[in-house]
Amino acid sequence: AKKASKSSVQFYSQALKDASQRIIELENALQTAITNHEFELFLQPMLDLTSGTILKAEALLRWNRLDGERIGPDEFIPIAEQTGLIVPIGKWVISRACEMISTLNHRGHSCKLSVNLSPRQISDRHLLEFIRGSIQNSHIQPDQLELELTEGVLVDNYDKVQYLLTEVRKLGVSVSIDDFGTGYSSLSYLKKLPIDHIKIDRSFVQDLVSDENDKAIILAIIAMAHSLKLNVIAEGVETELQRNFLQLNHCNLAQGYLFSRPLPFAQFCDYLNTTVSN
Ligand code: C2E
Ligand code: CA
Ligand code: CA
Ligand code: CA
Which of 29, 201, 267, 278 is geometrically suited to a Cys-Cys bond with 179, CB 3.0 to 4.6 A? Predict the structure, then answer.
């Protein structure tokens, strides 16, 4: 038994070593990823459940390393967040999203795009100016850009968030609360902060059809949001049954693999062209 525990300790420390080496490697590679053009924004359509049209999409970051390796945001965003690299990367995301909106406008699709904001970006005092500049440079309507923030971001930086959201709202940019229901925050911010939309987390949508508790939670979120004049977006919709339930219960928008995976820009344009509604 003693021998076994020793080898499992060795195994464990080797695994830790590998993991930390991987993080250091990614940290270094992230430094040059923007200048090497290794980032790409994919777009995932959101379906308006009332009209059946695609009026909005979420921008999701992809990292294609020069050596061909593709790394998902769940792995590199936390590293970018810890090192502060998320600030320049997040700016790249915002300006690229504005460019895409502009290109879509020129092709006759007036589509909104939402971008995800990390906690670290909220503390960047140049963020507001940067957003304003990106909108101006790309000649888009401010209300075509949307920001997604998680509840955690709101709680940790309440004063900064309040200032930022008030100012972006003045610009005409709208704001969504992402992963709603998974945070530990009180709900009071919903009436205090200028918020437009709530995105119900995928974890509630997943077992919606079989789990009575998830059904109850979703109905409660929709009712609460609507009484506060907020729109509701359901994430992670994968089946027709989920879609029907959401539609029947007046959820406003739905996003998920049932409609489309996140797509590279060119494929997203094809998608818009082939959906009858557009
Ligand atoms: P998120 O903001 O909650 O984004 C939704 C995630 O769910 C995306 O994963 C999307 O591909 C995935 N998804 C969408 N529909 C379905 C579905 O029907 N089923 C399943 N199983 N998954 C679905 P992705 O693209 O891997 O992104 C993961 C997370 O990385 C995002 O979660 C977001 O927190 C973060 N992220 C992505 N891009 C950015 C970015 O530009 N900036 C920041 N700060 N974070 C980002
Ligand atoms: Ca999001
Ligand atoms: Ca989300
Ligand atoms: Ca989520």
Answer: 201
Instruction: For residues 59 and 92, give the distance between their C-alpha atoms in angstroms, rounded to a whole number.
Output: 12
Pocket test for ligand 1, best of 56, 116, 179 (most atoms within 8 A of CB): 116
For 42-54, write each residue's pLDDT tens digit: 999 999 999 999 9
Residues with CB under 6 A from ligand 1: 44, 60-61, 72-74, 77, 90, 93, 115-116, 118, 178-179, 202, 235-238, 255-257, 262
What is this structure's pTM?
0.94
Q: How far is the CA of 29 from the centre of ligand 4 (A)?
A: 26
**Cα 172 to ligand 3 centroid, rounded to whole Å:** 22
pLDDT at 186 > cutoff 80:
no
Q: In the predicted model, what is the mean pLDDT of residues 9-38? A: 89
Proximal ligand: closest to the CA of 182: 4
CA of 169 to the centre of ligand 1 (A): 24
CA of 208 to the centre of ligand 3 (A): 17
Ligand nearest to the CA of 117: 1
